[in-house]
Structure formats: C-alpha cells, structure tokens
Amino acid sequence: MQKILIADDEPNIVTLISRYAQREGYDVTAVSDGRQAIEACTREDFDLIVMDVMMPDTDGFTACKKIKEFKDIPVIMLSARGTEFDKLFGFEVGVDDYVTKPFSPMELMARIKVILSHRPVSEKTAEQRIISVGGIIIDTFGMSVEVDGEKADLTAKEYSILLLLVQNKGVVLSRDRILNEVWGYDSFGVDRTVDWQIKLLRSKLGEYRDCIKTIRGVGYKFET
Fold it and tell me: Which parts of the sequence carry 4-aspartylphosphate (predicted)?
C-alpha cells in the first residue's frame, strides 16, 4: 500500500484529503506543520507528500527543501496563492506539482495518481520486486514475466494488464477501469481493445491462460 503524508494546519482540509485518499487505497499520515512533516520523513518512508504552503513553525516551501535534501519524495504543494511567482518558486525548491486552493479533491487524487504512476519503484519496495502466482513470475523492476521458468514475450500493454490483474487478484476489473489504468483514458465504444489484448495475453500464458476469468458483461479477474 502506497503511503501519503498530508501536511496542513487546516483540519477540514486534512479530513477531506484523507477521506478521498483512503478511498483510493492509500495509507495516510497527517501532520499540522512543516517541522512535523520533516520529522515524519526522518522516521518513515512516504511515496508522496501533499503539503500546504502557509503553516505555523515551518512553511511548506522550507519543509519541502529540507526533505528533498535527504529523501527523494514527490511533493504536491497546496496554496491559496496561485501567482506565477509562487509556482515558479515552488518548482525551484523541488515541488513536483502545485494545486491552488480551493481545489477539487477528485482532481487532486488524479494528480497524485499520475505522479505515482510515473515514479520508479524505490529501494524500500525491493521486497515487492518479484510477484509469484503459480508458475507465473513477474519482475516489477525488469518489467519481465516468466511462465514455468521460460520468459514470456509480452508487449508493454500485455505486461501492464497482467500486472494490474495480478495485483487485484480475485477482484473483478471492468473494461473501463482496465482502459483507464493501462491506456489512460475512459471507454467510448472501444471495449474490444481490452478484449483483444486479453486474448493475446492469454495465448502467452500457456496452461495459466484460464487464470484470467471473463466476467460476462463486466470485465475480467485473475484467479489461481
């Protein structure tokens, strides 16, 4: 589970972001100022930080700069000030994205998802490098798959679909969700795109082809 640190001195903002983040499956930790954010990052590893600019004790820009000195954690900055100068200054101190208050929590979740999806697997998740299900072994660092000890020649899309299904083993994934997760867009009459890729993927999984179950009228799920 990916971990998010929220640093904001407004309780209602913290509660709002926490609720949406938890719904998306993130593990959330919250602090109320920049100094606490720095201390939290010295104790724990986080996958992303959502941080307000104006906070007591230590402001968000200062906290971001300090944290970036010892840990490479992406930071989304929240601020009621959305001037070009503020944004440029934020990027100079290491901010990865800048969101102006008031903001849409759904948009914030989308920005978090984009940043995390493009972030390379970190050393702290090295123990999760290998995913093994039956005779299928997925190397998430090397983006490679072996089936009964032999390398499967998967395309990037086939690999992404397999990884998504395996990571959600036993959960029915709709075609729309697969399209959104793998291709990055919603379905507009292109369900057959997923069906065709699933067909190709199954053909490369040998005796494990039937682990990908078709749920009629909905989508697919992975079961061993």
Answer: 52
